[in-house]
Write a structure and sequence with these properties.
It is a single chain. This protein is of the alpha/beta class. Helix content is 34%, strand content 24%. It is built from 9 helices and 10 strands. The strands form 2 sheets. A 6-stranded mixed β-sheet has the order 6-7-8-3-9-10, with helices on both faces. A 4-stranded antiparallel β-sheet has the order 2-1-4-5, with no helix packed on it. It starts with 7 loop residues before the first strand and ends with a helix. The model is unreliable at 252-258 (pLDDT under 50).
Length: 258
């Protein structure tokens, strides 16, 4: 298990949409150099929790600590300022621009004369892609011509360029083929190797069990169970997701110890 204080710790998080309680007294944590899988049926609260962390849908109540300090994440700008980067399913890439332009979109570096420092941006792009072992034909290749796995890699590379400390990935392998999925899973492993905290939302338990350290199961807006992947089976996780088996993992151990 990870040591030290969590990079992100959430305590008693609540979020409602009218009469619907999307999150109910949720505790959640992720450490540096750790990948946490967030799983559950549709409507379980996974996306709501991620949006709370990302500042898109701030919590109604509860406490959030980042790097051990209390914070209020009430906008995406605040989240980004803390070092929280989110890669959503749509990836937010511009198909008509090349890789360099996508990585620096909105953050173009200007020289003293006001001209874009294209060479410097190319060098930094190559450095980041090399760090993540991302292989593409050229950094000047249009994003539209890249494979699904390569596009996902470019979206993740943007987070590294922005000095992310915590990366949130929303269904990173959805609609990808076998080879592309393998590429993305390797990318997630490299994020962990870089010392980052990573949270992955996924419906694909096979992918989850390949790359995560812990699985947190959400059910009906609550944290229903937690599993250490090395000590669990996909069948146990499915049982917790469906409600056939709740609280028989770390949750019960924590309660019995208190």
């Amino acid at each position: 298990m990870p040591r030290g204080e969590p990079r992100l710790q959430m305590r008693g998080i609540n979020k409602s949409f009218g009469a619907v309680r999307a999150l109910q007294d949720v505790n959640f944590e992720v450490y540096d150099n750790e990948v946490v899988g967030l799983v559950g049926d549709n409507g379980a609260g996974k996306s709501t929790l991620i949006k709370t962390i990302a500042g898109v849908g701030p919590a109604d109540s509860g406490e959030i600590l980042f790097s051990g300090k209390p914070v209020v994440i009430n906008s995406p700008q605040v989240a980004t300022g803390l070092g929280i980067e989110t890669v959503y399913q749509d990836l937010a890439l511009c198909d008509n621009l090349d890789v360099v332009s996508n990585l620096f979109l909105g953050r173009e570096e200007n020289g003293l004369a006001g001209s874009l420092q294209e060479i410097d941006m190319e060098k930094r792009t190559l450095q980041v892609l090399r760090t993540l072992d991302v292989k593409i034909p050229s950094v000047r290749t249009l994003v539209a011509s890249l494979s699904g796995g390569q596009r996902q890699s470019i979206a993740v590379a943007k987070t590294i360029l922005r000095n992310a400390k915590l990366v949130l990935l929303d269904e990173p392998t959805a609609a990808l083929g076998v080879a592309q999925t393998r590429q993305v899973l390797n990318l997630i492993r490299r994020l962990k190797q870089q010392g980052l905290a990573v949270v992955v939302i996924s419906h694909n338990l096979a992918d989850v069990f390949e790359v995560v350290d812990r699985v947190v199961v959400m059910r009906l807006g609550k944290r229903a169970a937690t599993f250490i992947v090395k000590e669990a089976t996909p069948e146990q996780v499915v049982a917790a997701i469906t409600g056939a088996e709740l609280g028989t993992t770390l949750e019960n151990k924590m309660h019995s110890a208190s």
